[in-house]
Amino acid sequence: YKRVTVKSLTEMKKNDEKISMITAYDYTMAQIVDHSEIDVVLVGDSASNVMAGHETTLPITLDQMIYHASSVIRGIQRALVVVDLPFGSYQSDPKEALRSSIRIMKESGAHAVKMEGGKEIKDSIKRILKAGIPVMGHLGLTPQSIYKFGTYTVRAKEEYEAKKLKEDAKMLERIGCFAIVLEKVPAKLAKEVAESVSIPVIGIGAGGGVDGQVLVIHDMLGMNKEFSPRFLRRYADLHTVMTDALKQYKDDVKSQKFPDENEQY
Ligand code: KIV
Ligand code: NA
User: Fold this and answer.
1) Model's pTM, two decimal places?
2) Rounded CA gap, 115 and 91, in Å?
3) What distance in Å separates the CA atoms of residue 192 and residue 170, rounded to the nearest whole number?
4) Which end of the chain, N or C, is more open, meaning fewer C-beta atoms within 10 Å of its C-beta?
5) Contact (Cβ atoms closer than 8 angstroms) between residue 205 and residue 178
6) 211-246: buried (b, 16+ CB within 10 Å) or exposed (e) per residue?
7) Which secondary structure element, helix H or strand E, spans residue 65, and what is its range?
8) pLDDT of residue 161
9) What pLDDT, in 10s, does the model give residues 94-151?
10) Where is the active site (predicted)?
11) Helix (H, G, I), strand (E, B) or coil at 229
């Protein structure tokens, strides 16, 4: 395999090749993702929701993110692996942000970190970049500040919010971030942002005018029955596939159809 690097992503944007990105949280799923030749794997703090069952991303710890990231890294040969800095691991000051990022890089072997926010965290991003760690930004809907907004509805519909978002994106490019995730903002605005910077803008619920797309793997494989926002396309119905298989197994055990003579020693 030719490894995907932060440089290849910039090249892809230049060549008008869209970037595919998906989340993963464990070794087996990471292997499947890598065999599918997805460009970027995000060890998202959405693990807090889909792996641990929390309502928000706030409870997941740095140690837990490192556990997920190191599991994912062992399953990846090709993709670029980016890890979310979880809530509470970078907001205090640049030193804390750097310390947390170094822990992720050393203890998991990941290739880059991602963090939510614009100018509020500028100094922390600069400190991490100075240490040679690639940083991916995250603007628009930032789930770690859900209690500031109160809802997960579309962001930057107001002119002043759109203006700040555009300024933040330019700033992230200027200080040296290699890409930006843009979550749940109007497609027109997302396109404008993507066209205003040379680094890739990877959207989720941000329309087709950006440089790539990211989805949560459990959602796009249809493992979550309840979660169905408009932006989500389900590429499989694994919930049905898996419950059918499990019910069949249960019935076979009860009726003694499993195991048969060939499935024993
Ligand atoms: O944690 C996550 O899964 C994310 C993506 C939705 C971008 O941050
Ligand atoms: Na995240």
Assistant:
1) 0.98
2) 10
3) 11
4) C
5) no
6) bbbbbbbbbbbbbbeeeeeebbeeeeebbeeeeeee
7) helix 62-73
8) 96
9) 999 999 999 999 999 999 999 999 999 999 999 999 999 999 999 999 999 999 999 9
10) 183 (proton acceptor)
11) coil
* Residue 121 in tokens: 């965290």
Q: Using a 6 Å cutoff on CB, does residue 219 contact ligand 1?
A: no
> pLDDT above 90 covers what percent of the chain?
98
Burial category of 203 from C-beta neighbours within 10 Å (exposed 0-12, middle 13-18, buried 19 and up): buried
Domain boundaries, the chain: 6-220
Complex ipTM? 0.99
Q: Which homologous superfamily does the CATH classification assign to the domain defined by 6-220?
A: Phosphoenolpyruvate-binding domains (3.20.20.60)
The identity of residue 140, as a single letter, is G
Identify the residue whose tokens are 């509020």: 120
Q: Is 251 annotated as a binding residue?
A: no
Quick one: which of 139, 118, 132 has its CA closest to 202? 139
Structure confidence at residue 160 (pLDDT): 97
Q: What percentage of the chain's residues is helix, strand, coil (to nearest 5)?
A: 45, 15, 40
Decide whether any atom of ligand 1 lies within 6 Å of the 217 Cβ. no
* 45 annotated ligand binder: yes
pLDDT digits (tens, 9 = 90+) for 23-47: 999 999 999 999 999 999 999 999 9
Residue of 21, 82, 139, 183 with the most ligand 1 atoms within 8 Å of its CB, for mutation? 183
**Confidence category of residue 226, pLDDT binned at 50, 70, 90:** confident
